[in-house]
Design a protein that fits this description.
The protein is mainly beta and 151 residues long. Helices cover 9% and strands 50% of the residues. The chain has 2 helices and 7 strands. It has a 7-stranded antiparallel sheet, with helices on one face.
Length: 151
């Protein structure tokens, strides 16, 4: 499994940062030039447990797209998005399907300061064709939280 985490202390109240984090349409695309599209599949479009999110992005220039689900939501503190079927295609020919997700977490350090953490993870198949290097097949992926994700 590939995993990367980052933590920063921000001079802002936890409640203000939570409002910003909930407005994923307002910040996600602008946060990285390789974030290409995001659509919350809910009416009204809001961050809520079980809501589906469609994403298009690039990793190292390789375009990918998929749908994931909000699998954890602790209002004011934490939200997680996970996908078991995110597909990247190199030159439109070679493709790889990964399971991936992200968790954002907020912890108040004081009334005016908040610790913001992000953890991004991905599980990739053992070979470009899926399955194990010995030729057997891997078991199907489940979300990091242990939930089964089916759109």
């Amino acid at each position: 499994m590939f995993e990367i985490s980052a933590t920063i202390e921000i001079e802002a109240p936890q409640s203000a940062l939570w409002r910003l984090l909930q407005d994923v349409d307002g910040w996600w695309l602008r946060s990285n030039p390789d974030h290409l599209a995001l659509k919350i599949v809910a009416t009204p479009p809001q961050m809520a447990l079980g809501v589906w999110i469609r994403i298009r992005e690039r990793i190292a220039g390789v375009p990918g797209s998929g749908i994931g689900q909000i699998t954890c939501l602790e209002p004011g503190k934490r939200v997680s998005w996970e996908s078991c079927d995110f597909r990247y295609r190199y030159l439109g020919v070679f493709g790889i399907t990964v399971a991936e997700g992200v968790t954002w977490e907020l912890k108040a350090r004081s009334d005016r300061t908040t610790i913001v953490s992000a953890r991004v993870w991905a599980r990739v198949p053992a070979t470009p064709w899926g399955g194990s290097p010995s030729g057997g097949s891997d078991t199907p992926w489940t979300a990091n939280s242990g939930t089964t994700i089916t759109p």
